[in-house]
Amino acid sequence: DSGVTQTPKHLITATGQRVTLRCSPRSGDLSVYWYQQSLDQGLQFLIQYYNGEERAKGNILERFSAQQFPDLHSELNLSSLELGDSALYFCASSGRTSGGATEDEQFFGPGTRLTVL
Amino acid sequence: DQQVKQNSPSLSVQEGRISILNCDYTNSMFDYFLWYKKYPAEGPTFLISISSIKDKNEDGRFTVFLNKSAKHLSLHIVPSQPGDSAVYFCAATPGAGSYQLTFGKGTKLSVIP
Lengths: 117, 113
What we know:
Oligomer: heterodimer
Largest sheet of chain B: 6 strands, mixed
Order of helices and strands of chain B: EEEEEEEEEEE
Helix content of chain A: under 10%
Radius of gyration of chain A: 14 Å
Structural class of chain A: mainly beta
Helix content of chain B: under 10%
Shape of chain A: globular
Largest sheet of chain A: 7 strands, mixed
Number of strands of chain A: 11
Distance between the termini of chain A: 31 Å
Number of strands of chain B: 11
Number of helices of chain B: 0
């Protein structure tokens, strides 16, 4: 158990809809990352938040947005969903203020499997 | 354009033998490299890492080797155990100040009892 939780575990929705994925980082971690894993693809970095502020942006579509709240949990919002958005979405956290792993050693949640029909 | 490549989608090894998983990268800005292991229905789990100032890092049965001039790294597992059967992802980052990981597509390791 990495200490990172993601809800829901599975999500099935239709094209054109909007969904919200939720992530709670490990206790004390300030950074949250979102990754997308499509079929036969490695994990693609989407976006990083650090202590509530956006820190880095990767291959994130304009239809997707994220935020990190004061309690450090994060949400990834996916709108105008397309069939190609079907994927596993992982959240990871890192960067404890004291002790623990380095910033680069990210701890992953179990993922949310999104299916767009 | 894939900056981190794992050219072998799968690898089968007998229990007790050595498993060698390879990874190549193209971005010379990458400064820190990590291996993650992933079981089905779980998120990736950090395994071992190496900084570009080193050429080897060891942790129990796992050793990572880095050849910076060849932009190549490898993960050695000795001896391989059936519980090591999983998908292994190589990842890289430019390091300090930029922590986003660039992942390869993974290599599925099967350790045969």
